[in-house]
Structure formats: structure tokens, C-alpha cells
Give the backbone structure.
Amino acid sequence: MAITALIVAAGKGERLGGGLPKQYRLLAGKPALRHAVEAFTEHPKIDSVRVVIGSGQEQMALDALKGLDVGELIIGGAERTDSVRAGLQAISEGVVLVHDAARPFCPPDVVDRLLDALGEADGAVPVLPVADTLAKGDNELRGTVSRAQMLRVQTPQAFHAEDLLFAFEEAGGAGATDESTVMFNAGLRVATVAGDQMLDKLTTASDWERAENMLAARMTSRTGMGFDVHAFEGSGPLIMGGIEIDHDRGLAGHSDADVVLHAITDALLGAAALGDIGQHFPPSDPRWRGASSDLFLSHAATLIRGRGGLIDHVDCTVICEAPKIGPHRTAMQRRIADILGVPHGAVSIKATTTERLGFTGRGEGIAAQAVATIRLEAR
Ligand code: CTP
Ligand code: MG
């Protein structure tokens, strides 16, 4: 019998706020919806995945799901139950696992437990015990409720599609916050299996923060180094650290010759094992002639974030006799931090001379060395 995962993602995410509906917001560089869908496309027992989205969310959904096999997108309704019903119309037979996009991290063993339990019952749902005291009340306590038999019911919820359709006909969906309620109200048997904290729904801003922290804790710290040299050529000003510095000599290079941004870009690419600046922006390519190096740096940052990474810190040493870097240090740090989208304190610029030794000592050019610390999900 075909097993289909039906992901409902047609909500507005009003309680989380922030403009973009939560299912399209990024968690570790990936939209929450994509996390939710991948848990099922990657599960060996799931035959197909369908996604219910809100009308007007088509482009966001296509972007979020690029490359994943989810068939045609289904347009949902005003309430969650309307969205589920719209999805069921498109599925109508076999086993269906109804799941909230707002629960992006479904562990595969929960799906296994649900499918096993479905052999013995009309439906199966993951549950967790209630740990907190349960009470009635508003601004005052109106009495506690025994939590002994209380369960928190999560999704995915597994049913035979015909049974769920029948239950909707029989009991209607109004007021139900999930399908197990509809099934139960229609007199059908719903088994419980062990749920998982990873399945807790992301409803409020603090839920979101918890999910981000959980993802960050799974990452490993990585360090990369970068080095670059440019020779002096012609008259100034020179571009360094993303700013223009008044100096009587400029630097030679294919792009704007920003030795500091080039070293930092290479350090970031190195930390992520993504090659080097020359690979991404070949000097032979006329597109980069005179290009502002902001572009190279922000590209490296985008690549890292696209892999779910975080940029923790960059540190750069500029090696030259002149110009003096001190007066420009703060402006460079700020500019680089802004390009990278990190706090100003996450960027350090230092400078040294080589005591008039070597090419930098003779004033033939400027060298820069950088290190970058990033975090990436351990693979
Ligand atoms: N959902 C849906 N159709 C609706 C409402 C909700 O498909 N009309 C989906 C949401 O996208 C989410 C899941 O149902 O994946 C659980 O709903 P909820 O957490 O309430 O999400 P939102 O409705 O988006 O959030 P809020 O209630 O805060 O606006
Ligand atoms: Mg809602």
C-alpha cells in the first residue's frame, strides 16, 4: 500500500511574527519547510510527499523545495483542518502521514513506530507525557488538573486515507487542532507511539530560538587561513579592507586589488573547504575586471550560510611599511563586518611592518594574512 506524507504548510505563522511565514524562514540555512519535507523524502518507507501551501505562497514554496520531488503543490485553506482536507482530496487512498511543516525535524524512527502501530489500529500518533503541572486559569490559578493521564500529541499522524476521509464526513473538522481528534470523534481507534522532543512545534519566537540553539550545538568549529599580496602600481588612493585609503600609491590587480578582503575571503573559503578565491572568481574572467572585492567576500559568506554555517570571527594582519593602518582600523572592521553580516566585534584588523626587510619592507607591495573561524554542521 502506497505511503504518502502530507505536509501542511499553508499557515501564516502569526504567533511567531517577523513577516515571512515561519515555514519559509531559514533554520541552519534551509527553510523550515525543506527540513520538514526532507525528513520524508529521505525515509525509505515513504513513497511520496505532497505539500499543502497557502495561496500566494507558490513562489516561496517553489524556492524552498527546489529539486525535491513533491508533485504538484496543493493550495490549502483558512484553517489547518481545511488545508489537511485539501491535501486529502489529492491523495484519497493508501496510508497518509499528516505532518506540520512547523515541526521541521522528524526523526525517522518515529515514522517507523507509526507505521508499525497502524497495523493494529485505525490511526497512530506520536505522544509525549506532560512534565509541567497542568492548571486552569487566567491571571489567577483556577485549579490544577491531574496530568497523570495527559499526553502531548504531535505530528506526523498516520491513517488510512479512506478512514480519515470517512472521519471528516462523520465528525467534521471544525475546532479540531489535529486529525487524531477527528478520528477519535468519529469513533475510530487511534494508537499512541513514543513521540520525540525533536518534533515539538515551532510556534513562538522562543521555540524558534531553541531550534536555532539546538542546531548550533550540533555544529563543529572550523578554521581557515588566507594569504594575499598585491604590488604597488600607479598613484592612489588604494582600496583596502573595503574602504578607500588616501595614499600616494595604488595597488595592482585584476579586481580592485583589495588585499585584505582577498585574504579574508580565502580564509572563509578555506574554513568551509570550498576552494579558493581564484576558483570562484578566475582572474581570466573579464567580469571581475575592476570588480569591487565586497562581492567576493559576500559570496564566501553566502556560500557558508547556504550550507547552514555561522561565521564566528575573522582576524587579518596587514603587512606593509605604509600606509599606516591604525587610523583606518575601525572603519575597515566595520565595513568588513557589514559585508559579512556579523557584529563589528567579530572582525579584527592588525598591522605590522617587516622592519624594512623583504618586498613589503622595500615598499614594493602589501601582504595580508587572515584566519576565519566558522561553524558548520558536522558531517
Ligand atoms: N497550517 C495550514 N493551513 C492553515 C493553518 C496552518 O496548513 N490554514 C499549517 C501551518 O503551516 C503549520 C501547521 O499547520 O505547518 C501548524 O499550524 P500552526 O503552528 O498554527 O502554524 P500557523 O498557523 O502558520 O501559525 P499561527 O497560528 O501562529 O499563525
Ligand atoms: Mg495556526
Q: What stands out?
A: The first helix runs from residue 32 to 41. DSSP finds twelve helices and 19 strands in the chain. Residues 140 and 276 are 61 Å apart (CA to CA).
